[in-house]
Amino acid sequence: MKVIIAGAGDMGTELAKRLSMDDHDVVVLEKDSQKISSLSNKLDAMVLHETGQRISALVDAGVKEADVFIAVTDSDELNIMFCMIAKRLGNIKTVARVRNPEYKSSSKMLTSEQLGIDIMIDPERLAALEIARLIKNPDVSEIEYFAEGKIELVALRADRDSELINKPLTVLPISPNYVVVGIFRENGEIIIPRGEDKFMPNDMVYVIKRAGTITEFSSMLTSEKKRIKSVMILGGGKIGFKLARILEGNKKNGLSIKLVENSAEKCRILSEYLNKTLVLNGDAADINFLKDENIENTDMLVSVTG
Q1: DSSP conformation class of 75
Q2: Where does the chain hold its CATH 3.40.50.720 domain(s)?
């Protein structure tokens, strides 16, 4: 598959590396001429200088023969423009990194299709959503969502004192709403479970279930039902801010949320947009400051500085 990537920042470079390792034909467009020589040495991909002539750059990159175009420059507007041009020049699937929520809101003037974008991604929001899911499900080690969130694949660690340990699956109180699909042992053994199989201490148990239906089973497997009541977020950057907004939007959680940010100006801006979060101006590396803010009694600490 031929893939063209516009933007060789951290994300673009990592994408190029991974796609090249999977034997895809990768072309990278980068405007910074100083980056190009070092990128050519690091990547098993063609790296072209993008000078601002977007149509020419895409044609030179072979957009008419490409299968996928990915725009991950630092500019939302440039990513959208690239995708619009790519869509006009070839029969190609387009992906754009777009951070500004206005481009994704239901009230926007143009749809993603009209903008020429097949898939619109916001990595910082995706990271914040994943963290929020783990806060909502503290017993869960991993969680993936399918069918618009109606079906979940979760991983639960079996506690040594669990009442389900060393009992055949056939006698366990497993509901029709969830199915145990895998067991991963500490020794690396992977088991596709059958009725006679048993959970052992520290097994990672993978379960497919309907959303919100595993509370009883989770409590028995992990012995103690956890509940997050307080969260401290270190770092008021894109991920920290978006995480706080997501947590504030969940009316049922009743969380106490604190956000620590080193920049006083950024704290002022964050305070204007966050209504239920206590924004603190301080150094996240200062242990005395964190102790003063009662970090020892905080249920969940999320570090997203940098």
Answers
A1: -
A2: 2-121, 230-303
Taking Cα atoms as reference points, which of 266, 270, 259 lies closest to residue 293?
259
> Beta strands of 168-305 (E only): which ranges?
178-184, 190-191, 204-210, 230-234, 256-261, 277-281, 300-303
- Looking at the chain, the whole-number percentage of residues with pLDDT higher than 70 is 94
d(CA 282, CA 261): 6
CATH superfamily of 2-121: NAD(P)-binding Rossmann-like Domain (3.40.50.720)
Please state the CATH superfamily assignment of the domain spanning residues 230-303 in this structure: NAD(P)-binding Rossmann-like Domain (3.40.50.720)
Phi, psi (rounded to 5 degrees) for 25: -85, 110
pLDDT tens per residue across span 85-94: 999 998 999 9
pTM over 0.85: no
Please list the helix, strand and coil fractions of the chain in percent, rounded to the nearest 5, in that order.
35, 25, 40
CA separation, residue 84 to residues 14, 70, 78, 176, 254 (Å)? 24, 12, 10, 47, 43
The CATH superfamily assigned to 139-221 is Regulator of K+ conductance, C-terminal domain (3.30.70.1450)
Cβ–Cβ < 8 Å for 128, 98: no
